[in-house]
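Bench notes, afternoon.
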Amino acid sequence: MTAANVPTEKKSSTGKIIGFIGCGCLGIGLVIVAIIAFAFFGVVKMLKSSDAYKDSIAAVESNPAAIDALGEPIEPGFMPQGNISINNGEGSADFRIPVSGPKGSGEIHVIGTKSPGTSQWQYTTWELNVDGATEPIPLGQ
């Protein structure tokens, strides 16, 4: 038999179709994960850029009782939890910020409101809960 007389096998395109579908599903999954990650990090960035967040970190870093309990430097954690909403100058906040220092760790708890036309937040709860302590440390106001 010569090479010209050898019957050729017809190749199936099923493998290509399955590969294409698999790559498509993987691509869609990666896009969904990216959208969720961008939304999550956007919310965290918005919370960290708020005056209520910045005020709270500054209050803990300058509070003698907090410095005594946590040590210096006091570092905020990566993941604040909660929400903040500001619309037409009016705002509300209810969130927690993990913080730590060389001597311990804790969590800042913030509940506050902001009235239109003012730049200051009014806090109904503004305290540091130190891990293992029985009483929170008030942060002012």
